[in-house]
Amino acid sequence: MTAPFLRLGTRGSKLALIQAGLVRDALAASVPALAAPDAIEIVPIKTTGDVIQDRPLSEAGGKGLFVKEIEEALLTHRIDAAVHSMKDMPTAQPPGLVIAAFLPREDARDVLIAGDTKRIADLRQGAIVGTSALRRRAQLLHRRPDLQIVNLRGNVDTRLAKRAAGVVEATILALAGLKRLGVAHVGTPVPEDEVLPAVGQGAVCIECREDDAKTRAQLAAINHATTATCVAAEHAMLVVLDGSCRTPIAGHAVLTTDGALHLRGLIVKPDGSELIATARRGAAADAEALGRDAGHELKRRGGPGFLST
Predict the structure, then answer these.
(1) Strand partners, 206
(2) pTM of the complete model
């Protein structure tokens, strides 16, 4: 076997490996030099976020826990590119690294998994709901302050098994991941006006070294411009809000049929007691400006301390 032309680093979870496989297949189909069966190697890398299972990630350092070791592998040239779930990405990359491409985005909505119960409104009074995401916890409590929200960590199979075993009555997971795993049938999508997705949810990004012109050119061949534009708006909002896993922030942008960009964003107190939402609509070329403007409005309306309470 010849040495691979490109080494793709990713987390070792089933979902992460599936996403890396999608990137490999897209590159093989679009870049002739990478079309050979052994031209691309997928390199699983264990991250801090994978190791920590006993507490919410917000208590262990927040965003970046699923990417730190992978980015270190990039910087030390052990891999050429890294495949990430965009919602795991911090607001900025380390010096020398760039996000070079996105795959087409999957459905960004969340899914309620609660047996025969299909809607959040129909969960029983005081139902126990498992989630490790502050964003989901806060939005659920805003709508249903009676719910008991408990921490639920682990991969998708683990969380589904815990719900099936009765550890919790319901959980909420990302539809994109469930689709990629082939188990989207286990729950019901939640409307975005009930639980707005995380920034970057459903998007797979590929990161590489800024000075690696060859890899950047290869990745440019598979970049999905619409996804890149929408995520740029969401992340621009997040940067203004200095978002992390410790902060309940949600945001989702789409391009409408007339080519305009529509961004929805919100901030919510961790206990769900107050939620502030906004929206922007404008030209796709102004995606980042729209995101920054939305972020500044949310920050102003929240006032001092809102995002740290």
Answers:
(1) 83, 101
(2) 0.91
